[in-house]
Amino acid sequence: MDIRRTNIEVAIEEMQRANYFTFVMLLRMAPPDLMMILEGGNLTFFMPNDKTLSQDSNIVNLAAPANHTTTPSSLAHFLLRHSIPSPLLFEYLQHFPAGSTVPTSDPDLVLRITNHGRRSFFLNNVRVSSPDICTRGSSIRCHGIDGVIQPNSVPPLPAADHDCRRPIPNANNNNATSPPPALQPAPPSTAPPPGEADSRNSAPSLPGLEQMFEFATKCVALLVLNLIVV
């Protein structure tokens, strides 16, 4: 692997090789604030295939030309709810027990897991149909899914669920448990994704996106750490 390429570039190449072209197009359209986070890695994407995305009118609108009513916020939230802020191979996802919930990259939305084995693993009501598509890069994983995770299908995160809404323990506290180092966010890269138009840099920013993603990362890190301890 060419170390000069960003994590997202390596992942995009694998997505294209597996024919997830529409999802790649949406990634390339991401607003600058979100793209900086994506380039930093430490993510798992759940990607609907091209046929599924082409049949969803909301996605067709997201992929419309720039003069459409699509906003950077609507595209960002689609990508955020189709990812979790931790790079997990499918083998690791299978350790999550049925009924557990995992925060998406938008910490106010969670994915509820139904786990009946490799061929019957669901995030909400959407099955993971093609696991481990992105594996070459150091910090981005991706899996194909057979549906679109709709905003109204993602339950809100309960206040006490996995302590994700509580403050993360202070590092100076002797009783605190820190997340595994591998789950910490990597410094964002400033390199643009391949083939991206310069006009993307003029897109409006999304206030608070970096802080929101950082919080979601800590939530998932605590969940994964809890799995390791248990």
TrEMBL record:
It holds the Pfam family Fasciclin. Residues 153-205 are annotated as: Disordered. Residues 167-177 have a biased composition (Low complexity). It comes from the Eukaryota. Residues 178-195 have a biased composition (Pro residues). InterPro entries: FAS1_dom_sf, FAS1_domain, FAS1_domain_protein. Residues 5-149 form the FAS1 domain. Belongs to the fasciclin-like AGP family. PANTHER family: EXPRESSED PROTEIN (PTHR36069:SF1), EXPRESSED PROTEIN-RELATED (PTHR36069). This is DH200=94 genomic scaffold, scaffold_4516. It comes from Coffea canephora (Robusta coffee).
